[in-house]
Amino acid sequence: MSLHPSLQSYADAWTHSVEAISELVTPLAEGEWSRATPCPGWSVRDIVSHVIGVDCEMLGDPRPIHTLPRDLYHVQTEAQRYTEVQVDVRRHHTAPEMASELEYTIIRRSRQLRNESRDPETIVRGPRAVEETLEFALRRRAFDIWAHEQDLRWALGKPGNLDSPGAHVTRDMLLAVLSKIVAKDAGAPPNSAVVFDVHGPVEFLRTVRVDAEGRGTIDGAPSLGPAVTLALDWETYVRLSCGRVTPEAVADRVKIEGDQDLASAILHALVITH
């Protein structure tokens, strides 16, 4: 047996992004590992530590026994505390130590994925010890690692891979929650429609329609009289969705037509991860 066909695209996306991360960071000088990234509170080293830590957990390695400092301003929740342990435990590792541990983790995780024979619906312990299906765990992993590849590219001034396999997994994950964001989180009124026109390396046109009961659905057909139309580029859409920028910071990159208050509520509600 080998990897189930429905899982292969997620494994490929993970491989593409993690190898890109390795290529980005391996040549870095010691000081460059401390460069700040758009991910709140995290340096280049911290993001690589997070990548290593999550994949080690997916490999089944025991978590480090480590007490976090009390002065980490960006750690506010229990979930963030859980995630930060794998990061903080590596904060004093040297550049060569980081690069070699990343390389070793990639080798081990790649071997595990090649030998993965379980059904996609198998329940596994994903990151943060949450039980979920194997398929969802791999899909979320592909999304997470691509988002962090983009964090590193932004920090290092080396843009790229905005249309890679991980980008398409990310698009699908963001679209899967868009109707809830518009209808529930942003409170779009019943019997309204909101159009998203995203252009760039990954592009799509989607309409979220809110019915009389306030339930949202999404489709690819245009709306004749939308309450709001939001037009923006793919990179800005991703950075808003990942909490890397505020709507105010990228106002010049978002074209709004229609109800300005509703548009603002939607843009603020787009954040699904930090």
Automatic annotation (TrEMBL):
Write the record's keywords in alphabetical order, separated by commas.
Isomerase
Give start and end of each Mycothiol-dependent maleylpyruvate isomerase metal-binding domain.
15-153
Q: Which Pfam families match?
A: MDMPI_C, MDMPI_N
Q: Which domain of life is it from?
A: Bacteria
MDMPI C-terminal domain residues are: 169-264
Which SUPFAM superfamilies does this one have? DinB/YfiT-like putative metalloenzymes
Enumerate the Gene3D superfamilies for this protein.
Answer: dinb family like domain
Question: Keyword DNA-binding on this protein?
Answer: no
User: Which GO terms label this protein's molecular function in UniProt?
Assistant: isomerase activity; metal ion binding
This one is known as: Maleylpyruvate isomerase family mycothiol-dependent enzyme
